[in-house]
Amino acid sequence: MRRLFSLFFTLLLLLPLSACKDERSLPQLNSIGNTSPAQPADSNPPPEAQKTIALVMKTLTNPFFIAMEQGARRAERQLGMRLLVKAAAQETSIEQQIQIVNELIEAKVDAIIIAPGDSDRLVPVLKKAADAGIKLVNLDNQLDPKTVQQMGLAPIPFVSVDNEQAAYAAVRWLRQGLPAGTPALLLEGIRSAENARQRSQGAVRALAEAPAMRLLASESAHWKIDEGYTLTQELLQRHPQAKLIYAANDMMALGAIRYLQEQGRRDVKVGGFDAIAEAQTALRQGWLHVTVDQQATEQGFQGMMLADRLLRGETVPDVTLINAELVTAQTLR
How many helices (H) and strands (E) does the chain have? Predict the structure, then answer.
């Protein structure tokens, strides 16, 4: 009996120890009943969806806009964004640009960077894009601020150069060494485009402050090489005494040069704007005398960077001006 009592007492002492051992060895169960340790709900958040930015340009027939796309592509790689590039057939294809923006609204892109062919007519469709929550950036040709305000849009960040000052500097350089009373011609861009207006203003200012210059005619060739050729032919037939032609872009200047080459006229000094590769060749050959490098690649790059900042909710400047530089045969050496 004494031995049974002793055994019973020993078992009573061992039971708590056994219970503690079993409790420590049990797996910890979480609230949904699986046997793995519970994890914080946000320890592995899903990756953020890649943003889509669309670059809408006037055309790809002008090398200036090809360079702009190259700058945007560089930013695309750096930012990890998805870039869509759209362009109208010609710089005068305003309705096509409007349609492109409508399609991008339907596609629900995150941002649109646009170099508009017209400073007023693109504003209503861009208001529609903004109302859909799409961020906007304006390149090259500025949308008219008054029209933007009238449409109830907030100021749209703008990236470009000081077009008026750049054209003024180009014509001021072009007129050097010309005798008193030298007659001049001006080939304008699309008159409803703000950058065309600014370049014309700068050119006229440079001619007006020089008593040696006389502006005989100022007409639009709509940024096009073929119209630059035709308009130069018409103007020189009316004003054969002209010795200076300033074109508001290189494409029109190249059209003017083509006509001068056909006529064998090296007595006319020609200036342009954009510093595209063909214009640089004409500079080396002596047919073109000055152009303006407005750094198209940098404009495309900066437009993408601004769009990225807007998508992050950051405040960006209303205007970002890129440095413009005169390009001559001397600077190319």
Answer: 11, 12
Distance CA 78, CA 222 (A): 35
Residue 12 pLDDT > 90: no
75 Cβ partners below 8 Å, 6+ apart? 81, 300, 301, 303, 304, 305, 308
321 strand-pairing partners? 160
Residues of the chain with CATH 3.40.50.2300: 52-160+296-320, 163-293
How would residue 185 be classed by pLDDT, with cut points 50, 70 and 90?
A: very high
pLDDT at 11: 38
CA 293 to mean position of chain CA atoms: 15
Q: b/e string for 45-71 if b means 16 or more Cβ within 10 A? A: eeeeeebbbbbbbbbbbbbbbbbbbeb
Amino acid at 52: T
Q: What is the pLDDT of residue 27?
A: 32
Q: Which two tokens stand for residue 71?
A: 């700058």
| The token pair that represents 211 in the structure block | 């008593």
Q: Which of 21-25, 112-116, 227-231 has the lowest mean pLDDT?
A: 21-25
DSSP 158-202: EEE--HHHHHHHHHHHHTTTPPTTEEEEEEE--TTSHHHHHHHHH
d(C-alpha 215, C-alpha 147), whole Å: 32
Q: 81: which DSSP letter? A: -
CATH architecture assignment, domain 163-293: 3-Layer(aba) Sandwich (3.40)
At residue 17, does pLDDT exceed 50? no
DSSP state of 28: P
For residue 87, give the DSSP letter. E
Mean pLDDT of the chain: 88
- CATH classification code of 52-160+296-320: 3.40.50.2300
35-39, 210-214, 226-230, 248-252: least confidently modelled range:
35-39
